[in-house]
Recover the amino acids of this structure.
């Protein structure tokens, strides 16, 4: 039986798309206005269907790519054209919110925002939060080990996964949908699949850890003039806010100006002209008391000359205002002729000096117009958006070299949260040793000997 | 060259023990008054020495066991007699406390308590905390993925590891000693080794994540009469204490009585006769305010009849008093004719009913005298100590069956934190599927094809 006929035995017609249906570009890939070319796109509804699909593909050594919300930024779901595409969007059931265990059990295709809403109703919090929350699906989020805005307190996606169900390349189902926080019963297999970008297995279901919903939310925006004071201010706030600090976001002047100057809508809460701006967030239980604590910490910081200016959000609209500025990546992109994005990480102490050097080196390139810098500094994760004159490959590579090369000596990473995909594969050896990469390949070959799962992504195999 | 001669080329005489030196039982294994029998015990000082030792062993297909503090409770470091024992106790350097990154870089042989002290001096906190802190070494702690008393807030050991250096079975060094919280540069290899009980690689060095030291510590002890109220009280306290709750420890009456009745020294802070006792801990920043918050939460809980009685620690000596009771495993052991220990986990909602049933079933066995139950209930992790009349194997197995068998249907685990080792190997299939265990074996064989690393532990290989 040929591939398509074999798939037809598993799926009804409306969940198996081929030929013209695909060419119609129904499945739009973010920032890629290209029609989708593939042998087929399948829409399974159950783990058993995914398993059956993989058995068919495994028998025929047919490569596959798994589609989630396709918001990935490193071409992790970009097809070559000869794959079967498995979209998990129909596995979108939130099957259980468990109030006592404080867990939610979800299909891989559930959109993050729907999870946030479903648990909020039960006065629980799923702390994962990032820009693409309205379209990113939890399966892809787990496969990417997404980070976001609250990692300092709640960790990466990895830390929020209690149970996972995965289909291997040969169709074997590895299922462990436990709701328990502590489980040392031999190897923790789920760790293998989290962050493997669809190259080791297909995530079909997960049990997520939830927290009690916060009753208070406070934010302040401060200005500082020296990077060493940013580090001291981080320690000051983290200590003072005890366990309640959830965000510590740093913005360099070019980013802050872009997000607070027309056509950007928000006015600047603090004047332009400072060297660093930090947005701090706490999630707590008592609005009045927590606000007082934050205010006192700001007063001490001002008194000790850690910060030069500061403003506390006094209302929900202030909160929205401050966070709109920080989350406004669009203003940098729209001001750019062409844009190139980075999500590096490096040790906190090095960030100030290194980013200044990187920015300077980038601006020396004739075709670089501006460098916007911002990031989750408490996690060591800095984002750059480069405004450049063209999409020329030589320029792109020159920019990559300037940003990535200092990271090796510093013990940094070419990807803090976006992953490797296709785009960063060439730079992986800058932050992982040859022995590490060899071991990764060994594991990949062991789990997927025909290289069927997302081939060509993350690692180059023989 | 024979094994010992080859090892002599790597290590000086005083760091290579054989024959009579070993038989002298110099290396005492906790709770095992047996002389150590092995081909040799080696004491490397560097990762390179460990690598050279493994190359020698790999060439000769010589099995090894790694020794840390040997406080393991499931015979994970028990020798068969034909192994080379590698004790990492001389790799005990705390090489750097980084105040900005809030990390400490340590050799595998550093004792936990020494880490706690070293970072405390810098006003930082390494939140791992458990009974064996005075002898457990960090390498073994990571290899076990130890849990302990503060998992609810800070997670298991896994969540506290930023960088790891490991020697594979063939001597390859896999080193990634990064200090960054976010790193999605391809597969997170360290996750493989954490919790693998020395069967996949030898951990030689680690970078640990630190937190700002707390300025306040508060605890309260409460009594409750229904298990459903324990769950409600957990949610009440967790919400109210926002991010500061670090412990929520449940004690059943038999445990509480044993720890507060002579010859146990402490008096009972609350009278005997209640059904459940909970000890809550918070680590915060402001002693006065945090104590007021805890007091108000207790008052609400009393008013809402969640708890029937409660007492707040008013001083450091109260804190010591309450925690001495909770940490007093000794009183249960010393009251037991023979003792058998468990560290199961199960979903929080099921704990009350299931543990009552398990206790009842155990007490129906003629040779079971008493069942002491306590645990980290917020993590789903319950400990049992069984006072039994004999060490007979049939009794031991009958007890194991009663405790372990309900866990399968509940989605629980036969080991929340102690690991599998030798002792729980037979029960692993109760909480992991055949497909999971097959995949574990596949990974083990791939990384250690001659089965040299801690053979016979965790998994049975052909």
């Amino acid at each position: 039986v040929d591939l398509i006929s074999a798939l037809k035995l598993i799926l009804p017609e409306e969940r198996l798309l081929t030929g013209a249906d695909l060419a119609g570009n129904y499945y739009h890939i973010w920032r890629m206005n290209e029609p989708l070319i593939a042998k087929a796109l399948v829409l399974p509804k159950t783990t058993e269907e995914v398993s059956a699909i993989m058995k068919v593909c495994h028998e025929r050594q047919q490569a596959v790519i798994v589609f989630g919300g396709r918001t990935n930024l490193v071409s992790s779901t970009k097809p070559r054209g000869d794959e079967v595409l498995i979209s998990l969007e129909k596995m979108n059931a939130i099957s259980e919110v468990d109030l006592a265990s404080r867990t939610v059990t979800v299909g891989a295709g559930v959109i993050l925002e729907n999870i946030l809403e479903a648990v909020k109703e039960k006065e629980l919090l799923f702390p994962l939060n990032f820009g693409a929350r309205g379209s990113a699906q939890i399966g892809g989020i787990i496969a990417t080990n997404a980070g976001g805005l609250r990692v300092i307190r709640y960790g990466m996606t990895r830390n929020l996964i209690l149970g996972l169900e995965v289909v291997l390349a040969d169709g074997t189902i590895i299922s462990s949908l436990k709701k328990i926080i502590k489980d040392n019963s031999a190897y923790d297999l789920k760790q293998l699949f989290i962050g493997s970008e669809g190259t080791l297995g297909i995530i079909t279901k997960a049990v997520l850890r939830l927290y009690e919903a916060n009753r208070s939310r406070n934010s302040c925006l401060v200005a500082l003039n020296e990077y060493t004071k940013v580090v001291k201010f981080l320690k000051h706030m983290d200590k003072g806010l005890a366990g309640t600090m959830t965000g510590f976001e740093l913005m360099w002047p070019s980013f802050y100006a872009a997000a607070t100057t027309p056509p950007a809508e928000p006015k600047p809460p603090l004047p332009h002209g400072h060297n660093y701006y930090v947005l701090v967030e706490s999630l707590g239980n008592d609005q009045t008391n927590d606000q007082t604590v934050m205010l006192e910490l700001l007063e001490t910081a001002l008194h000790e000359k850690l910060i030069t200016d500061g403003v506390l959000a006094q209302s929900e609209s202030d909160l929205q205002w401050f966070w709109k500025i920080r989350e406004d990546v669009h203003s940098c992109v729209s001001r750019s002729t062409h844009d190139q994005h980075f999500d590096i990480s490096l040790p906190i102490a090095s960030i100030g000096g290194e980013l200044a050097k990187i920015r300077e080196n980038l601006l020396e390139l004739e075709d670089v117009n501006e460098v916007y810098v911002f990031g989750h500094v408490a996690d060591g994760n800095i984002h750059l958006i480069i405004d450049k004159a063209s999409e020329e490959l030589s320029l792109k590579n020159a920019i990559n070299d300037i940003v990535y090369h200092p990271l090796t000596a510093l013990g940094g990473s070419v990807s803090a949260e976006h992953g490797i995909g296709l785009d960063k594969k060439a730079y992986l050896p800058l932050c992982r040793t040859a022995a590490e990469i060899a071991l990764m390949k060994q594991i990949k070959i062991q789990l997927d000997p025909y290289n069927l799962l997302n081939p060509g992504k993350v690692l180059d195999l023989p």
Observations:
- Chain B touches chain A through 99 residues (CB under 8 Å).
- The two ends of chain B are 29 Å apart (CA to CA).
- Chain B has a mean pLDDT of 95.
